[in-house]
Amino acid sequence: MTNKNKDEAALFCSCGCHDGVVLKIDRDTDGKMAFLSLVSDRFYSEQEGFFFRLGEKIKRIWRIIRNKEYCYFEIVLKEKDIEEFKGFVNTM
């Protein structure tokens, strides 16, 4: 886990694929807002050909049209990262 500052943390997959999650908390006068971003390394997504990528996008669209869930990717966390993330979330 990477803490950029007190209000932002980034978790990246331990397998080395560079997929990850960025959690940012913005505090304002109305309360708290949290932003969750999914980030993916384009190197791996660009390795396949155009028609493979097009097929993957059509699958995603079809799942959305049918009101189904679609998993973009999963990230693998080490125990240390899990504990650090728990601590970060508890500060919210």
What does this structure look like?
The chain is α+β, with helices and mostly antiparallel strands and 92 residues long. It has three helices and four strands. The chain has helices spanning 42-45, 50-65, 79-90, and strands spanning 2-5, 8-12, 20-28, 31-39. It has a four-stranded antiparallel β-sheet with strand order 1-2-3-4, with helices on one face. It is globular and about 45 Å long. The relative contact order is 0.22. The model has no long low-confidence stretch (mean pLDDT 76).
Please state roughly what percent of the residues sit in beta strands, choosing from under 5%, 5-15%, 15-25%, 25-35%, 35-45% or over 45%: 25-35%
Distance between the termini: 16 Å
The succession of helices and strands, N to C, reads EEEEHHH
User: Radius of gyration over alpha carbons?
Assistant: 16 Å
Nearest-integer average pLDDT = 76
